[in-house]
Q: What sequence folds into this?
């Protein structure tokens, strides 16, 4: 069977840096990861990306320069992967480069009922795929979300179809939870049906609060949250967020779950210890995810967790406590480490684009039909 090599690059809403994988795919799209590399964002660049998640001065200029910087970060990860695998650029069919999401507002703003014009909205991922192709000498596939928006969809999440091929089981319903900056869930039926949507916040709020009060980028293993006490009134306030009660398909991002959102809730509950807020944020993340599993996938008996949240032991225990009877495990237990899953998904999405095969799922995004995703930038 013929095999080809692809690179997948992911820099998620957690804003920690770039994960990249070099993978081998066969003609059926079955994937084997051969190498993994990570490059952290430095503190000034991470701060700039955070600022670009909201309106600011001269943001078009700053966004363009940030896209150039993302491409340079991506290129360094690509060269690290090539060195690890001892392959050359000519051996790689394409790079799937998601870019850095700074705005995600699907199905908003530009509708006009008098003209029977449905809103499309927009999604914005900072990137410079042309520069990445120039720096690597490899074809680049980027801009994966826009075509689904054009077809009336949310443009997210993109990974449930990949999750199905990787984690689906013929005799059981499996739920896959990716906890990055935002949490998204895939529900994989043994009949082959796939559902997926964003549940709510993942690491974004926890990381922000941890950095503000401890200076650390994240709460390692959830140890700080574990030292605090859950505040029931604050949790109830968090849980009143309307997004949590919307029916899928739905998607979200830092446009909603951001420091301003957190401040609004905390202003109504003054005087809480910082560790107690962290404990409550962690439980809120677990609650948002678990309630969706209980509502929409009650038959699932396995929850496979990937993304950075899978490394947070306290969060994983909290998830398990909210899901009695469900086995909550890291994706490590199913053959792929948590920090490699999303990057592998973008290698697979690039594979689908190059072959002009549809990769979106209308049941997931709400689009009018399945579409070929992504734009190709030749080397």
A:
């Amino acid at each position: 069977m013929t095999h080809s090599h692809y690179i997948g690059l992911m820099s998620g809403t957690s804003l920690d840096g770039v994960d990249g994988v070099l993978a081998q795919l066969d003609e059926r799209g079955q994937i084997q990861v051969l190498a993994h590399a990570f490059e952290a964002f430095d503190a000034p660049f991470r701060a700039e990306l955070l600022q670009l998640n909201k309106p600011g001065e001269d943001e078009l200029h700053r966004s363009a320069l940030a896209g150039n910087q993302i491409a340079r970060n991506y290129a360094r990860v690509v060269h690290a992967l090539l060195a690890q695998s001892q392959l050359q650029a000519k051996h790689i069919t394409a790079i799937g480069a998601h870019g850095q999401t700074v705005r995600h507002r699907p199905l908003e703003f530009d509708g006009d009922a008098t003209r029977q014009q449905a809103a499309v909205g927009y999604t914005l991922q900072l990137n410079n795929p042309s520069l990445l192709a120039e720096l690597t000498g490899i074809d680049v596939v980027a801009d994966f979300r826009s075509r689904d928006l054009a077809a009336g969809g949310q443009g997210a999440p993109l990974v449930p179809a990949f999750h199905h091929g990787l984690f689906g089981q013929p005799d059981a319903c499996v739920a896959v939870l990716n906890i990055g900056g935002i949490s998204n869930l895939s529900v994989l039926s043994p009949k082959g049906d796939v559902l997926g949507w964003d549940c709510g916040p993942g690491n974004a709020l926890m990381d922000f609060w941890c950095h503000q009060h401890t200076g650390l980028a994240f709460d390692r293993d959830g140890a700080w949250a574990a030292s605090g006490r859950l505040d029931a009134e604050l949790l109830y306030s968090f849980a009143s967020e309307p997004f949590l009660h919307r029916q899928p398909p739905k998607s979200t991002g830092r446009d909603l779950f951001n420091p301003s959102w957190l401040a609004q809730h905390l202003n109504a509950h003054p005087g809480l210890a910082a560790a107690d807020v962290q404990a409550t944020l962690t439980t809120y993340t677990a609650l948002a995810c678990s309630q969706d599993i209980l509502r929409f996938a009650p038959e699932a008996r396995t929850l496979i967790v990937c993304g950075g949240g899978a490394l947070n032991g306290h969060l994983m225990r909290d998830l398990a406590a909210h899901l009695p009877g469900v086995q909550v495990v890291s994706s490590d237990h199913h053959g792929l480490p948590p920090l490699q899953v999303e990057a592998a998904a973008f290698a697979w999405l690039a594979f689908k684009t190059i072959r002009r095969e549809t990769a979106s799922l209308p049941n997931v995004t709400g689009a009018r039909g399945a579409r070929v995703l992504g734009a190709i930038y030749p080397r």
